[in-house]
Amino acid sequence: MRIGASTTLTGGKEMDSLTRRSLDYECFRMLAQAGKCSIGDQMHPHGRLLKPVYSRIGHTYKSVAEKEPWCVGAHAVTEIGFLSTSTTLLPGVLATSDVGVTNILAELHHQFDVLDRESDFSRYKVLILPDTDRFDQQLLKRVRSYVAGGGKLILSHESGLDVDGKQFAMEEIGLEYVGPSPYQGDSGDYFEVLERANEDIDPVVQFTYVPGSVVKSHSGTTVLARIWKPYFDRTYKHFSSHHQTPFDRPTDQAAVAQYGSIIYISFPLFESYANNAYRVHKLLVRNCLRRLLRRPLLKAELPSIAEATVTQQNAKRIVHLLHYPASRRAPNQDIVEEAIPLANVKLALCTENKPFRVYLAPQRRSLKFDFDDGYAQTVVPSVQGHQMVVFEI
């Protein structure tokens, strides 16, 4: 479920905050998500339109109009879905774990959708159930059918438990649930990522930032990371000068484990990432996805703050690249003031057949490309805020 957004532009402070680059970004991002643009105007009580407001809208919409031929009728192309907690446990509220999943997948440039329990899981190569998705009979039946049909699964913390939180609802997870972590104070848990999943992660013990679950692996389960215990739980009874008590020694508990096509993470990693943005947590998810999704739809050599999405329009696949870095210039306000150019961006799009042509839009400038092992590979010379790259299949 990808939807377009809307933005409201008025005179005065709001207009100054929503800079021209910021308005460009919001509208071009709607196009990149296969949505439609909508800009509102809170008209002044005197009933007259403000010329500077519509001048700014006109500048952005002129560019939107130039890009529309590659956007009208397009739909998002995705391969990962995550089950939104906001649609189940917290209706009407943006769940922190949803924010964490969204941030991680967007920063890794994966193509994904936000799902509810009625969504068609079979459309996705990987399904993520973040942190708190316990299995009632209906969800258990749907997830079990998805896995039996070849789907891959990532679960974390309480996801996969039965509704009472006593045990895992599926034996296919390959783990025994023992209970909540005994370290519920400020200490939290520590974990060590093992060789099979530690690419780009330093060989040191890492912190979860939040208490997790205690699990033990069954025979045939591959442990990708193990839990370390702290010296003691940091509460009012026990003092450590640091915010968390230092780690003591390893345990036989799995922090991350894989059984077949299912990977389980024992702590609420996605909630933690939303609150702490700990890069190791993102890298851990990336490395888990690489074990499950060997051939991602898109490979892009981009900074994590850049965005990359894929849409399809008839026989065209369009890669949207956006780079509008925001900076926090007030306690609750992020400002986009510049579009920072990117140069020589390498892209590789997975396609069944060799494209007939690859070109920039709306410039209609052809790009050289190679086709190898099912990937069309090209280099985008420059990204000035927003650039579309069209692959004619």
Give a nutshell description of this structure.
The chain is α+β, with helices and mostly antiparallel strands. The protein has helices at residues 13-17, 20-32, 51-67, 96-107, 137-148, 269-276, 279-292, and strands spanning 7-8, 39-40, 75-76, 80-83, 112-115, 126-129, 152-156, 175-180, 190-193, 206-207, 213-217, 222-230, 247-259, 262-265, 298-300, 307-313, 316-322, 327-330, 333-335, 342-350, 357-361, 365-366, 369-372, 375-383, 386-392.
Helix content: 10-25%
Kindly name the structural category.
alpha+beta
What is the CATH architecture annotation of the largest domain?
3-Layer(aba) Sandwich
Please tell me what the overall shape is: globular
**CATH-derived topology of the largest domain:** Rossmann fold
Radius of gyration: 23 Å
CATH level-4 homologous superfamily of the largest domain: Class I glutamine amidotransferase (GATase) domain
- Low-confidence parts: 1-6
Which CATH C-level class of the largest domain is it? Alpha Beta
Q: How far apart lie the N and C ends? A: 25 Å
Query: Within the largest sheet, what's the order of strands?
Result: 5-4-6-7-14-13-12-9-10
Largest sheet: 9 strands, mixed
